[in-house]
Amino acid sequence: MIVLAIAAVLLLSATVTGTLMYIVSKTTAVTNTFEPATVTCEVQENFDGTVKKDVTVKNTSNIDAYLRVKLVTYRVNDKGERIGGTAAIPSFTPGEGWFEKDGFYYYNKPIAPNKTPAANLIGNDGITLVKYTDADGGRQVIEVIAEAIQSVPTSVVKEYWNVTVDANGVISAPSGSGN
Q1: In angstroms, rounded to a whole number, what is the distance separating the alpha carbons of residues 166 and 50?
Q2: Sign of CA dihedral 82, 69, 122, 117
Q3: Among 105, 4, 123, 115, residue whose Cα is nearest residue 52
Q4: Rounded-to-integer distance, Cα 163 and Cα 140, Å
């Protein structure tokens, strides 16, 4: 009985060892290609010195991303140096799909890599920058600062940008927030 048990263990051991050796010798190496996600964007605009128009953002990421823009304005003198006085963003109507929340303009759908939103934030009518005639003088500058954030998982954009994302991936300001 003992000899039979030892023989069974040896036979099983030889079978397992032989099978493993066969698999190792016959399996070809598989290269695991993995490209980490990068999330970047770039502002695109037309500016003729007095009118800023066709303002949009291109998703330069390698994944789908949500986009948002902050418009920052200030006054400069003829040398381009910042000076005193106040400057305000002139009134404009954001393009379709854009909404404002807490001073940021959000595009409501994720944008594919190397694409721009269907509508510009500031369209062809543009924003005319102000040349001031008050005591501080100078002219207005509007800088367009853009950010991108990965679209998946949606919990990231919800947490970091404090927006709501519906089942279709469309974002909006949470009800009761500053719009």
Answers
A1: 39
A2: positive
A3: 123
A4: 31
Amino acid at the residue 16:
V
What's the distance, CA 89 to chain centroid?
24
Q: How far apart are CA 76 and CA 53, in angstroms?
A: 20
Spatial distance between the Cα atoms of 133 and 120, rounded to a whole number of angstroms: 31
Average per-residue pLDDT for the chain:
90
What six digits make up the tokens of 117?
């939103």
* 17-to-3, 6, 123 alpha-carbon distances in Å: 21, 16, 71
Give whole-number Cα distances, 36 to 31, 135, 157, in Å. 16, 53, 19
Chain centroid, CA 148 distance in Å: 2
Note the pLDDT tens digit of each residue in 116-166: 999 999 998 999 999 998 888 899 999 999 999 999 999 999 999 999 999
| Contacts made by residues 130-136, CB under 8 angstroms, sequence distance 24+ | 130/87, 130/90, 131/50, 132/75, 132/85, 134/85, 135/85, 136/75, 136/83, 136/84, 136/85
3-state secondary structure 125-174: CCEECCECCCCCCCEEEEEEEEEEEECCCHHHHHHHHCCEECCCCCEECC
